[in-house]
Amino acid sequence: MKTLPRLKTIKPRLAPLNAAPVRTLNTKAGASERVRGSAWARIRNQVLVRDAYTCQGCGRVSADNEVDHIKPLEQGGHPTALSNLQTLCKGPEGCHTKKTAREAGKRARGWGG
C-alpha cells in the first residue's frame, strides 16, 4: 500500500487579532431593552388574566391576543409595570397593528404629532 506524503504546516499569513469582541445587540438598533423569557411569560399571563383575555381596544376575546406597552418604552414607559401593559387583539386589522402603525407615524415625525 502506497503512503501519501505528509503535508507541511502552512505558516499563518495574518497576525492574531487582539481586539475585544464586538458586543452583539439583542434588539434592533434604537430599540429599548425588553424583558424576555420566563419573566416576560409570567408578566404577560398576569396581564391576559387581569384583562380576561379581552382586547382593551375593541373587546375581542382571544387567548392569542398581544400584551402591549401603553406608553412605549422609548418614551419612558416602564417595561414590566402592569399599569403600562394592556391586552390588544392582533392580526392585519387588529388593535395592536393599528396602534403600532400610529406610533410608527409619530416616531417618524419625532413623537411631536
Keywords:
alpha+beta; 2 helices; 7% strand; elongated
Task: Give the SSE layout.
Elements: H1 37-50, E1 66-69, E2 85-88, H2 95-108
Antiparallel strand pairs: 1-2
What does this structure look like?
The chain has 113 residues and is an alpha+beta fold. It contains two helices and two strands, in the order αββα. It has helices spanning 37-50, 95-108; strands at 66-69, 85-88. The longest helix has 14 residues, at 37-50. The mean pLDDT is 83.
Short description:
With 113 residues, the chain is of the alpha+beta class. The protein has helices at 37-50, 95-108, and strands spanning 66-69, 85-88. The model has no long low-confidence stretch (mean pLDDT 83).
Count up the helices: 2
Please report the total strand number as a whole number. Answer: 2
Order of helix and strand elements from N to C terminus: HEEH
Mean pLDDT: 83
Strand neighbour order, sheet with most strands: 1-2
Shape: elongated
* Beta-strand fraction estimate: 5-15%
Provide the gyration radius in Å. 25 Å
User: What kind of sheet is the major sheet?
Assistant: 2 strands, antiparallel
pLDDT below 50 for ≥5 consecutive residues: which ranges? Answer: none
Structural class estimated from helices and strands: alpha+beta
What is the straight-line distance between the termini? 82 Å
Give the helix proportion (percent range): 10-25%
